[in-house]
Design a protein that fits this description.
single chain; alpha/beta; Rossmann fold; 2 domains; about 15% strand
Length: about 220
């Protein structure tokens, strides 16, 4: 993909650099991308974070213009970081991912993410997306957008997805119930409904399917 396709809606002249927070749990990729972005005269990388919790804390402290977030991070993923930050600061979020599952795009857009692109894009293209998003536009990689149009809809309710999301690390029914302020019996009912809808036999199988399809 050419950078012209990304840059056709460019940012107007700005009086100061675009302040960017970068979060990625892969140190080599994070450091390399930060170094390349720092070569851009209008972009200032103000923080580098290795997980989602660090990203939330740093963003709330530093108030960047753009948060460039890896999707697959320990603890909070990139979309969950965006969801949290939307409630506390005005930074715009761009999510990058190695595995661009179409279902994740719906999650990202619902969370208010303003940019979504694969990690395969080079630093020049990433910088162009940062400028575009900083100017108030949105950017979704065309291939991901095309895949999303043909992707099957999630059959689960919001609460059923909540149960899977909270329990994705193997939490017990009681722990899920406590986290979601539900009765344990209600959690069991939701899990039973999920297993039926997805035609699987265990909660872990349901979690894996939901993660693969970007439903949680």
């Amino acid at each position: 993909m050419s950078t012209d396709a990304i840059s056709d809606v460019g940012a107007p002249g700005v009086s100061r650099p675009i302040r960017v927070l970068l979060a990625d749990d892969e140190a080599m990729i994070r450091s390399a991308l930060a170094a390349l972005l720092r070569l851009e005269g209008d972009i200032e990388v103000i923080a580098e974070c290795s997980d989602g919790e660090q990203a939330v804390a740093a963003a709330e402290r530093l108030h960047p213009d753009i948060c460039l977030l890896d999707l697959e991070m320990p603890g909070l993923d990139g979309v969950e970081v965006a969801e949290r930050l939307r409630r506390t600061i005005t930074a715009r979020c761009v999510v990058v991912t190695r595995h661009a599952r179409p279902g994740v795009l719906r999650r990202a857009l619902t969370a208010g993410v303003a940019g979504f692109l694969p990690k395969s894009r080079d630093a020049v293209e990433v910088a162009a997306v940062i400028r575009r998003v900083a100017a108030g536009a949105r950017y979704v990689d065309p291939e991901i957008a095309a895949d999303a149009l043909s992707d099957e809809r999630c059959p689960l309710t919001d609460r059923e997805r909540d149960v899977l999301r909270v329990g994705r690390q193997g939490q017990t029914t009681a722990q899920i119930a406590r986290e979601l302020s539900l009765a344990p019996g209600t959690v069991r009912n939701h899990v039973s409904a999920v297993l039926t809808k997805l035609s699987v036999s265990t909660r872990q199988q349901a979690v894996l399917m939901a993660l693969e399809r970007g439903w949680i």
